[in-house]
Amino acid sequence: MRQCQCWRAVALASSGGEHQYRNLHLQVTCFLELQQLLLLALCCLLYILSRNGWMRLKLRYAAVPAFSQIPPCPSRPPFRPTSQLPVRQESKVPVQPPTFQSEGFSAQVSELLEVITPSEASEHVAKELAAYTQTIIQEMLSGASVEGFANADVLRGTAFGVAVPEIDLVVSADPDCLEQQLQGRLSKGGIPKTRMDARKMQKSAIRACTDLLVAAGGFKFRRSAFRCEEPKVTLMGPSTMSVSGQGIPVEFSVNCATPGCHAALVAASGEIDVRSRGLILLVRRWSKDRGVCHVARGHLPPYGWTLLAIFFLQVKKLLPPMTGMKSGSDYTVQTGHMSDCQTGPSESATVGCLFSSFIGFYRQIDLRQEVVSLRRGERSCPKPQAVDDPEVLHPSVQIEDPFDPGRNFGAGLSPEGLQRLHEELVRADAILAAGEEALLSEILEPWAPPEKHATCSADAGVELAGRQSLF
């Protein structure tokens, strides 16, 4: 009934004017129910919003050109993998080779040894750094001790001191103590107690100690090497503990055995033949300056070069066989009988002559077919290999640790690292062919990577195959 009256009012008002239209509005409103009024208001609101949106959209695209006129986006260049080999970069302060006042190769070697041999001041700095580090570490690891080892004269500084530091700081802590102190840190990393092993514990302890040393000890972090067999970090010591006012680079590790083993071997060799210590220092300095002792690049570690130098002296009958023993943080070396050691002309040979023989010795032999063992102290037959052994195609270098015969310090030597080692031996052998006229500064000229590697080209596989066939 109300709808009929409403439509009748609409028909009457349609034939009238504005006054009648107002009356129509009032009459229609009176006849509508509340639900119908709400529906009518909603429809009006939607109409207004749609009308305004359409007008805005029309104005927005009025000044925009057609899609066909929009220039296409530039395409990205195709991805090309970069070479992992080092590439030479320009340096404002290039590293210069060392200079010597002496004439003659042997005299220059003696002059260098006087510079790089660890002095009492270097040993004192290493002990001070160890004692200072221990006071900071004990805040977190109660009962832990820190020992410092100086492998060269750190007060004179070398060009690659940060790359291969000459001071080792080793924290000795009980594994149970580490587990108790670092349990909260490991649990935050999602490592349950049942899955914690010695290596994970070692890495976590190094991270925790590094954070503490940087925050409260004035150390500066440089880089980490956690992929190595023995994880470690490189730090810059506080400048206040250096005579020159600059930080001293150190290698920091936790429960690491290599620095102690190296110190014990050098001390035992020096007691038998004082020249052995000079040869080890010279070989390590040469491997550092020529860039063949960086483990991250697939080279032998400095400790591996120490084992090679001692093994060479054993083959020349200047040192007896050696067996290492370790008990906690104590390292001792037991030597064999001296009856087979050579006496005579070799006793008068200088360290420079021994270094020339060292280069020629490893220049001639194939390290992949040798077993460098200080326990035997002599060259052995080629190492046996099974027919299905993968090392038959790509044999590795085997350098046995006298303290742990199961450890092989030549396992990390990559084919590229082996090639670089061979190239440096050939280069040094060619320079030393001049005898006493050879220049030590030329042998120790700092190595710089090439500006461009041929392995980046399409002939990378061919070149790598050629490298592996050189041995």
From TrEMBL:
Q: What is this protein called?
A: Polynucleotide adenylyltransferase
The residues that cross the membrane are 24-49
Q: Which domain of life is it from?
A: Eukaryota
* Top-level taxonomy: Eukaryota, Sar, Alveolata, Dinophyceae, Suessiales
What does the UniProt keyword field contain? Membrane, Transmembrane, Transmembrane helix
